[in-house]
């Protein structure tokens, strides 16, 4: 890989991105040291498929039906990220056909995920019908890929990277500079979270600032190389490096946004906890006057009320003692009220929505930035969480989103170190492979080809013979 440092007579644009190579390399190594620590420290806490589900047929069809949804999710996520850079340059109207292609692919994948859920639940039961479901999952994912592949040639005509790499570089460099400032601000935000809340509150974004720096180190190297290739008149090499840099900038933005969103969520939760406690007490007062609710016998109802009382008491004590995790406090309040059919309106509903959105966003951000390692089960859980969130089933959405995050973290631990040696980590290549930015494989010391807008036949087209 070419060195990131430009010669004195090279472009000022490259000089502007250079300082992060030195400062960010340290952060990159720290971020991946954190990642390895979490791989060792965490254990799986989520259940597998339901025990009563019929065993899947031992065929390649089942293997395809398990693997293709994750691959299709990658195609869509990559396409969506590159589309953002093109829209920034040409406008939303110019990219409307490609936006539609991505949405069509999303619709196909959503259907495949729903089919996978029913299949894992044992529906349908007979073997012939179950094989048809597996074939349907495969077909839906293939159609998602076909739609993206079909749009890729026109997408490349609009971008014209081989002819107009300079203009696209300006867009990427502008985003890079803006994001470098946001990353520094995010570090300050994390420091503030550590001062205001217990470690558990900010744990989901611990290491995110370091990993954002890691992606920016990688972007620095490839923006410089793209600029140099442009100056040398090597448009294919410029396009390849530019795509790698764009994807890294996009993932750095996800890391930073995750920190900002969690900080906003914790702040909103802090303001909401007192009202949630008051609303919960009022709901319990109403329930105590009932002999039954929702068909629950009186004895069971009274037991649920006692449990809810104990939860509210514990939350009040934690709030008084401080510091405490306000999102977790809201989660426990809502979970205590839900069995009493008392958490579907008013402040309890608002609390449930806040908690579920936060956990879903965190899970989605983790999958987005580690998609080179995350498999289909975590993504299917995340898809279910999104559907439940849209249906206002907040407790179930929150539970599934956290399960999706746990499963995704397990996948990362199993995936292990994508590159041996410190050089790949210091340059950000290891993170780029883990994040699905580079379509690396065994023996690809440079991480391989950068992924581009498109499906299975077109996403690796930036490879150079």
From TrEMBL:
| Top-rank lineage group of the source organism | Bacteria
Biased composition, Low complexity: where in the chain?
44-53
Q: Which intervals of the chain are annotated as region Disordered?
A: 41-64, 446-465
Which keywords, in A-to-Z order, does the entry hold? Membrane, Transmembrane, Transmembrane helix
Indicate the transmembrane segments per the record.
16-35
Q: What is this protein's name?
A: Uncharacterized protein
- Species annotation: Streptomyces lincolnensis
């Amino acid at each position: 890989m070419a060195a990131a440092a430009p010669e004195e007579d090279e472009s000022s644009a490259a000089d502007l991105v250079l300082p992060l190579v030195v400062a960010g390399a340290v952060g990159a190594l720290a971020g991946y040291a954190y990642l390895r620590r979490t791989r060792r420290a965490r254990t799986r806490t989520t259940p597998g498929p339901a025990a009563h589900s019929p065993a899947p047929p031992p065929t390649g069809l089942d293997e395809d039906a398990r693997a293709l949804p994750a691959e299709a999710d990658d195609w869509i996520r990559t396409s969506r990220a590159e589309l953002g850079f093109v829209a920034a340059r040409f406008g939303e109207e110019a990219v409307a056909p490609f936006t539609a292609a991505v949405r069509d692919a999303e619709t196909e994948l959503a259907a495949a995920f729903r089919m996978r859920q029913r299949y894992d639940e044992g529906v349908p039961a007979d073997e012939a019908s179950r094989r048809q479901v597996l074939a349907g999952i495969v077909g839906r994912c293939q159609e998602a890929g076909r739609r993206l592949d079909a749009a890729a040639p026109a997408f490349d005509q609009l971008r014209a990277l081989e002819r107009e790499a300079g203009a696209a570089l300006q867009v990427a460099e502008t985003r890079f500079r803006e994001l470098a400032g946001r990353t520094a601000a995010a570090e300050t935000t994390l420091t503030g979270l550590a001062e205001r809340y217990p470690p558990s509150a900010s744990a989901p974004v611990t290491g995110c600032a370091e990993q954002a720096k890691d992606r920016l180190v990688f972007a620095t190297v490839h923006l410089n190389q793209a600029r140099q290739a442009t100056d040398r008149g090597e448009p294919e090499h410029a396009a390849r490096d530019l795509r790698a840099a764009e994807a890294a900038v996009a993932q750095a933005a996800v890391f930073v946004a995750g920190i900002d969103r969690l900080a906003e969520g914790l702040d909103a939760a802090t303001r909401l906890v007192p009202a949630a406690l008051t609303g919960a007490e009022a709901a319990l007062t109403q329930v105590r006057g009932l002999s039954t609710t929702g068909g629950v016998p009186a004895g069971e109802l009274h037991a649920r009320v006692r449990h809810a009382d104990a939860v509210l008491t514990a939350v009040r004590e934690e709030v008084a003692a401080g510091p405490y995790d306000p999102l977790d406090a809201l989660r426990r309040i809502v979970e205590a009220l839900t069995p009493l059919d008392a958490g579907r309106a008013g402040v309890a509903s608002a609390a449930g929505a806040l908690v579920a959105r936060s956990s879903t966003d965190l899970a989605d951000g983790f999958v987005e930035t580690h998609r080179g390692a995350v498999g289909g089960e975590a993504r299917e859980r995340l898809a279910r969480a999104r559907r439940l969130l849209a249906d206002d089933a907040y407790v179930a959405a929150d539970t599934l989103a956290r399960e999706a995050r746990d499963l995704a973290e397990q996948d990362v631990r199993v995936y292990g170190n994508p590159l041996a040696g410190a050089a790949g980590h210091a340059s950000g290549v290891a993170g780029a492979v883990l994040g699905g930015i580079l379509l690396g494989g065994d023996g690809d010391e440079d991480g391989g080809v950068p992924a581009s807008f498109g499906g299975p036949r077109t996403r690796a087209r930036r490879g150079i013979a």
